[in-house]
Here is the input.
Amino acid sequence: MSAGVEIRNVSKQFGNGVQALDDVSLSVAAGEVLCIVGPSGSGKSTLLRTVNRLETVTAGDVLLDGESIHTAGRQLNALRQKAGMVFQQFNLFPHLTVLDNITLAPLKVRGESMTTVKPRAQSLLDRVGLGDRGNSFPSQLSGGQQQRVAIARALAMQPDVMLFDEPTSALDPEMVGGVLDVMKDLASEGMTMLVVTHEMGFARAVADRVVFMESGRIEHIAEPENFFEPASGSRLDLFLGQVLR
Amino acid sequence: MNSRWFWHGVYALVLLALALAIYAASRTVDYTWRWDRVPDYIVAYEDVDLRSTLTGIVEISDGQVDIIGTQDAAATETFGDLDEVLVEDGDYVFDGDVIGTRSGWRIGPLTWGLVVTLQLSILALLFAVPIGLLAGLGRVSTNPAARNLAATYVELIRGTPLLVQIFIFYFFVGTVLSLSRMTAGVAALAVFTGAYIAEIVRAGIESIPKGQMEAARSLGMSYGQAMRHVILPQAMRRTLPPMAGQLINLIKDSSLVSVIAITDLTKAGREVVNSTFSPFEVWFTVAAMYLVLTAGLSLLIRRFELRLARSDG
Ligand SMILES: Nc1ncnc2c1ncn2[C@@H]1O[C@H](COP(=O)(O)OP(=O)(O)OP(=O)(O)O)[C@@H](O)[C@H]1O
Ligand SMILES: [Mg+2]
Here is the structure.
């Protein structure tokens, strides 16, 4: 079910000249949970978005389950199904009910039948604690509930890898825990996860490795127990000092 | 409350003053108002002559007139329900003679014009919507050919007067493809309105946050699937009100096709002026008829919008 991600020498320069990624290489093993932290504008989102080609690269490539994402032609849509993505702003489809949000892609992209998709969608909803909200519209849910639906929507495509871009940053503090719990569950089941986050507690508890990015580069990468004890005076030390206060 | 009624009174007074001013102005040019002539051109109750199509002998039995053919006795013709019988039993009538009259309601030329105007507008809209949708999709496409073609179309149409486009459609396109007046008129209006609808569609699509497309694509949807299932359903909701407004514009713009001799409301107005010599009354009436159409539509649309707003979860 799970697969690895290999980021190979990826560089990204935007049209306006901003060098968002500068020769980034990173290998994520199947079942590994990798957290990415770093200051604003360091390229975390851009890196994550190159994994499913929401962002193109200027150089390098990403291999998903051994297959090239950035040279893919027609099979890109099929490859993208292997990587579920959860966004900071949830991006649920507001014109569809919760259940329709979850079933849309399996029905239209994979041509599955409602009889196979609906039970799966329902069990995903149960799993994120929203089993009774299938007929609600996204606007009727709290931010935390919406984000859990977004996770269920991504999981409905049965991805091998899950990409999270600051999934709790837009939430009220009391909503954060529920979303993190769902993510912890997923991690314990062996899902490969790339998580951009400011939740240092989550990174410390769940991540197998933590990446510190700055100016489009990976500055530091380590297991949590080492990551959170950096050499004093280092850039990571300064960054952690700021976010942990 | 009191002051509100006061301002309503002011409004009514100003309107009254305007009406008086118009009346006074017409006095200065020595014009006789003949409003009584106008209704006949909307609907008329009148006598219609019924004519024989045979040559033969008239037989009348309890109000019913039968004509028995003289060349061929098997050929007969029957006239019932006549309001006035103008022949007598035993009369010899020729083919084309008036047998009697029947009175009834007849729809006047102005009403016919209104119907043609509606027909033109609805037909043109039916074609303009798919044209506009296609061009709107082209405008937001990442494919340079589609994007530039759509942009060229929109700029060409919006940069030239509709009247000139109608002439081009009638004299050039119409001649080359040998289109009827009506087809050329509908085509010109559809192509014209399509450009405006394209801009409405483009604005609608662009109003949908980028994250929607990204979420759809990240789930493995193709661009087309994402458009069809995620973007357009949301965009269409937002484009319905301006689209309806465009229909109202279309109704008004359609008056220009009268220049290629399509008997729409405006052309009918011109014809009625020619036969009544009452231009003031006729043009005021024509304006009122357009107004009834457009005001009625915008009322309907307002209701529809309210319902849409209420159902917006
Ligand atoms: N579409 C874009 N066009 C131009 N520049 C961009 C675009 N997206 C991002 N950038 C720039 O690229 C750099 C990296 O942005 P990115 O969003 O990856 O940072 P981030 O680490 O996710 O920051 P944050 O923590 O604020 O989300 C920034 O300087 C940003 O301004
Ligand atoms: Mg970011």
